[in-house]
Design a protein that fits this description.
Layout (H helix, E strand, L loop, with lengths): L4 E9 L2 H15 L5 E5 L14 E7 L2 H8 L2 H13 E9 L4
Antiparallel strand pairs: 1-3, 1-4, 2-3
């Protein structure tokens, strides 16, 4: 059984208009990959170090392969440039575990 994977995005949007095309289409790019949106903004309370600037997004995938397939998919690549140019971003995929 494969381990789940989590795409984690720290995002601070500085161009709302430029970000609009990404926000309009990002959800649809996830649909073929059986994901769960676990975190989409919300209050962040730093415990150690500084809190991320902007908001945090966490998406659960069934595996690392599924997460990479989504990130590398033509549909996501088509809109990614909007996010990269309209916001300061930090993203990574983390392998999880089954309890």
């Amino acid at each position: 059984m494969s381990k789940p994977a989590y795409f984690i995005l720290e995002i601070d949007i500085h161009d709302a208009e430029g970000m609009a095309p990404y926000l309009e289409k990002a959800g649809a790019t996830l649909m073929p990959f059986a994901t769960s949106l676990l975190v989409n903004g919300g209050k962040t309370i730093p415990q150690e170090g500084a809190a991320p600037q902007g908001k945090v997004v966490v998406v659960r995938f069934n595996s690392m392969d599924a997460a990479r397939s989504w990130y590398d998919s033509p549909a996501y690549r088509e809109i990614l440039g909007h996010r990269l140019s309209a916001a300061t971003n930090r993203s990574y995929i983390v392998e999880g575990f089954e309890a």
